[in-house]
Amino acid sequence: MDLTYGAEYDVFREEVKAFIREHKHRQPQPGDGFRSQALKDWQSALIEHGYHSRTVPRDYGGYGAEPDIIKSRIISEEFAAERVHRGFNGQGVTMLTPVLLEMGTEEQKQTFVAPTIKADIIWCQGYSEPGAGSDLASLTTKAELDGEEWVINGQKIWTSTAHHADWMFCLVRTEPDAPKHLGISFLLFRMDTPGIEIRPLVDMTGDANFNEVFFTDVRVPKHQIVGERGQGWQVANAVLGHERSSLATPDAATIRLNGVKRLMREERISGQPIIDNAIFRDRLMKLEGRVLAMQYNDMRLLSAKINRNQDVRLAKMIVKLIGTELRHEIECLGIDVMGEIGLSYGDNPHVKGLGSWQYQYMFYLGLIIGGGTSQIQKNIISERGLGMPKEPKMSVAEKAVKGA
Amino acid sequence: MEFGLSQDQLLLDNSVRKFLSAEVPLDAIRSLAAGEGSDASVWRGLADMGLAGVLIPEAHGGAEMGMLDAVVIAEALGYAACPGPFLSTAVMASYLLKEAGATDSLARMATGEYRVGIAFSDVIGAHKGQVTESDSKLSGQSLFAFDAEADAYLVALADGQVLMIEASEVTRTPLTTIDKTRSVCELTFDASPACLVTDDMALLKQTIVRGRAVQAADTLGAAQYMLDQAVAYSLERKQFNRVVGSFQAVKHMCAEMASQLEPSRAFVWYAGHAFDEVTADAAATACHAKAHLAEVGQFVAKTSTEVHGGMGFTDLLGLHYWFKRIGFNRQLLGSPEAVRHEAAVLQGLCE
Fold first, then answer.
1. What is the ipTM of this complex?
2. Which of A93, A129, A308, B322 lies 20 to 30 Å from A76, alpha-carbon distance?
């Protein structure tokens, strides 16, 4: 056990601190959207100094550093400590860019990577469908080749940022006769292509965080495919693995827990500081214990990226399940300690502490469901982590009886 | 940067587990629970491997290892539901005597021939303020002293004094608890001559939190055993022409156990390591780890028993020894609520 990063990293940490000192005043302010010049300038400054798109090769607009987990960690620590903006990290940056770098053609890399990481192209992800949620591979949006173009028909749902996006990366069925996992392809197309209709999907928070997207004879050039025809599932899976763990980072949970702690110390209910209430304090401490467990689990995962001989498969598989449920409960405590005040929402002037407790409480319920539900996570953990058998497939006779 | 066990620690873990699977079979636990035999030979075997002296300096015949090593050992002991005075003699008493400079007994403790028990109920637990001292003579009672076969006891008083007393000077009444893999007793003093070891309250508290970190590890091991048994049983037992482990309801119970246990492993390792590196948060971390493992352990103990169905409820499988061990760990040295309160006090959230 050695939790130090080593003296050679002290110099690097000083560099990061110096950058933050010199440039912090230039970071985007609340209200600067991801189309704002302020954000684009900040994004360029981050890339130039290696604090964004650090390992993306220079040929494609990145900083071109060798992967170094500890340096990435130090950047995260210093930016978090000073609450400095990390730049734009939409789905194009976090999910599509790694895929293109690994599986894209040279032309695709040249065309898309640099504008994507500079936030000049905003992407949305077209995966889920009304009939294909947990069973994503059963998706039915189809693309048929007509001369030099794919013709897409069907519908996607849960498409965040579709209404802002310039492009979509999308899973479509191109080989209707192949087994379901082998009939999918990964296409890229512009969102202003004729035949695309976007409808906002208002969720329980009152916001439209997601959209429905409808395709009617949408024509896309044949070459805008990543990987071969029928390989789309492998491409998507590489990306989903990344999405799951990033939905529930322990660092964010720690920040929210500290927010509850501050709320409980500073606010009084009926004249009594909330922190003096032993029942609420015990709930706080219970959650703190669970957050600590996830923090040390995260350190173990970080360590395994450096020391390749460490087996952390199970430790990694549980992060999305435990992290999202934990976060939901932290937000719940932020509400409960305030009683009726905890009902405050939106522009209510009585909102306290960091605010947004109710919003996050609902939003995290969405994340418990999204990105692979808790129940799907438990299937994965029991089957891949504990070696338990898959659900037996229904026999033909059973399907007939059940009308499937 | 490396968060994990070293090669030496992996070897230690491996050899302890190998020894325990050979020397502490279920039959041995059953005999002990029935009041037959003793844990003496197992403790001697563990001492021969250097475990009794894990925290004792080499100069006194110990292995002079760290708290992370003690945590690794405790996890293996919990997995095997192993009896013996590891928590009392090898961890708490060894640490306190060494730090207090009372080194006379350490060499005999390291060889396993001399056991020093812990009688701290005056400071923690439900029996505070029941022991008085006058002219180095003790009067009153101490409850839940562990273990009942010790050669001497460290008795803590409410003001932070710790005195050592020979077992021959006290009246011992064994106390039956749910957990037959551990022995506890009531000590009655009647102007019994004892010897002052320390009056340093901080040292006493440091000793207690170290015990808590080790108990968290013991629970982790016991709970891991119960999860492993649940998965194995679910893959053997058939109902409706299927192994029950193929039913999603059962798979999800096992996934939930694994999901809570896996981060607990990192937590317990860190709790041990924090003492070795003298980090400021070590005491609070140990309190949190004990409380967290108490909750996770309780969940796993219940869920694993349920996965075993009716068999889990019987004596035949012996699974209940682990269920009870986890229940024992939950209360000894502080209930989860009590230690969470301490974690809050340690960070200044309350008094």
1. 0.96
2. A308
